[in-house]
Amino acid sequence: MGYEIIWQDKVLKDLKAIDKEDAARILERVKTVLVRNPSGLGVPLKGIFKGLFRYRCGDYRVIYAMDLAEKKLIVLHVKHRKDAYRS
């Protein structure tokens, strides 16, 4: 059984700024692939982003957090890789 996905409000804005085909591909991969094993597929971030994970979808990065106790995947941002780690 997979994780419940919680989308932050910022993600909708992020996805609108992306090409529609790329946005659809990212949504599909998060809903079908990442939700099954977010800790195994994602890469833990370091430094000020410690506690967060990233998942690569082409040139884009899905930045997310996990609540292991409640089996929730909290998607925080979807950004191009050059902008993903800027504040």
Q: Can you walk me through this structure?
A:
By secondary structure, this protein is an alpha+beta fold. It has a single domain, classed as RelE-like (YaeB-like fold), CATH 3.30.2310.20. Helix content is 31%, strand content 32%. The chain contains 3 helices and 5 strands; from the N terminus they run βαααββββ. Strands 1-5-4-3-2 form a 5-stranded mixed sheet. A hairpin with a 4-residue loop joins strand 4 and strand 5. The radius of gyration is 12 Å and the shape is globular. The chain starts with a strand and ends in a 7-residue tail after the last strand.
Secondary-structure blueprint of this entry?
Elements: E1 4-7, H1 9-16, H2 20-34, H3 38-41, E2 43-44, E3 53-57, E4 60-67, E5 72-80
Parallel strand pairs: 1-5
Antiparallel strand pairs: 2-3, 3-4, 4-5
Summarize the structure.
The protein has 87 residues and is α+β, with helices and mostly antiparallel strands.
The major beta sheet can be summarized as: 5 strands, mixed
Structural class: alpha+beta
Shape: globular
Order of strands, main sheet, comes to 1-5-4-3-2
Total strands: 5
β-sheet strand percentage? 25-35%
Low-confidence stretches: none
CATH architecture: 2-Layer Sandwich
Helix content: 25-40%
Termini gap: 34 Å
Count, helices: 3
- When the domains are counted, the total is 1
Strand/helix succession:
EHHHEEEE
Give the key terms.
globular; alpha+beta; YaeB-like fold; 87 residues; single chain; five-stranded mixed β-sheet; 31% helix
